[in-house]
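Quick one:
INPUT:
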């Protein structure tokens, strides 16, 4: 297990090996067997790659109004138990549910026009934190993606390093 490499992008060849291994071993409790077919990848890495990227039932399309409403109602019941929530929204992963809430639906997020004061705060936060957009967003009570997009939209704020 010590020779397994993690933290690097998956190649098309590795994706193909993973798909073939899933076809043979299935996707329920056989991740160690699956990983043996994908050299250099752990069972955890294989499981995550399959369930979050390659599984044909994972939806990667824009969220619908109905899905947003369901997510909000489930969040009211389960809070941040994203895996519990995701099981009730067909095709959406726990990561997708969490990101959708944090980046778009969280009612505490500011969504209006940016003020000059916020632009200044964004500049300061970006100089201090670099590209840690989640942290920057939390400081400004905006989504991290919104902060990144603001910097990309107006390079006078953050320069060209976005």
């Amino acid at each position: 297990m010590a020779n397994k490499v993690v933290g690097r992008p998956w190649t098309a060849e590795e994706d193909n090996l993973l798909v073939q291994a899933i076809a043979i071993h299935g996707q329920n409790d056989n991740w160690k067997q699956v990983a043996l077919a994908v050299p250099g990848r752990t069972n955890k890495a294989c499981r995550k790659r399959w369930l979050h990227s390659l599984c044909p039932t994972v939806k990667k399309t824009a969220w619908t109004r109905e899905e947003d409403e369901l997510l909000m109602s489930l969040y009211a019941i389960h809070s941040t138990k994203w895996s519990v929530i995701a099981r009730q929204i067909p095709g959406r992963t726990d990561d997708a549910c969490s990101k959708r809430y944090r980046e778009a639906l969280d009612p505490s997020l500011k969504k209006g026009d940016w003020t000059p004061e916020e632009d200044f705060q964004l500049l300061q936060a970006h100089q201090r934190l670099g590209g840690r957009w989640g942290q920057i967003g939390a400081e400004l009570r905006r989504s991290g993606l919104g902060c990144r997009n603001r910097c990309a939209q107006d390079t006078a704020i953050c320069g060209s390093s976005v």
